[in-house]
Amino acid sequence: MSSLSLAVRDSSTMLRRNLLHARRYPSLTLNLLLTPIVLLLLFVYIFGDAMSSAIGGGGDDGPDRAAYIAYVVPGLLLMTIGSTVVGTAVSVSNDMTEGIIARFRTMAIHRPSVLIGHVLGSVLQSVISVVLVGVVAVAIGFRSVDATALEWLAAFGLLVLFATALTWIAVGMGLVSPNAEAASNNAMPLILLPLLSSAFTPVGSMPGWFRPIAEYQPFTPAIETLRGLLLGSEIGADGWLAVAWCLGLAVLGYFWSAATYGRDAK
Fold it and tell me: Which PANTHER family does UniProt cross-reference here (predicted)?
């Protein structure tokens, strides 16, 4: 077999291994998935009327909760990805500390396949989680009637690209963490950053000193791009910024993970 065939075979094996782990121990994935769902229900049904006024929704008849559902769902879909990849950091840390990686290194397998399996499994879980949160959003009133088929395809591509970028960062966090608890804590910014973005309220409504925090981070341009694609509105420069953030984070995470994994192997 060629080296490429071996790499594909071993990566597929590691992917199946990670999916089996996720199936046998679903509590971590479910706990992380519940966070965006609970926030969706909380912000729509508890804060929906007040937040609708903040984004200019509603009219003479009062706040329009449907307008806020349309606004908040894109941010929560990306927050779902951030929540899901935290489990990847924990899984990688467990592999590094429980001895299985040392055993893999004694076997004739493609060395990067261990990390590639984690990444592919995490991206697949992220897509499934996004679909589940999207189903809940549709059930409570989210509609995307103005988006074309091409915009839907672009939205899906953005979600996969964003999941890939965050997963490589999470893999690096898992590799440098001494245990699962530290990995979970190190990956916590991937859940907190969406709360400091335009996911729940427009950047323009934030205090002046806080706006740079919301503007100059990866979640805000990605959220604005996804919102524009799903609602059929203007995207502007956010599309290029979102892609640039995704590619930059993916490259950074890949080289960070590869360097850390290679160093630990010595």
Answer: NODULATION PROTEIN J
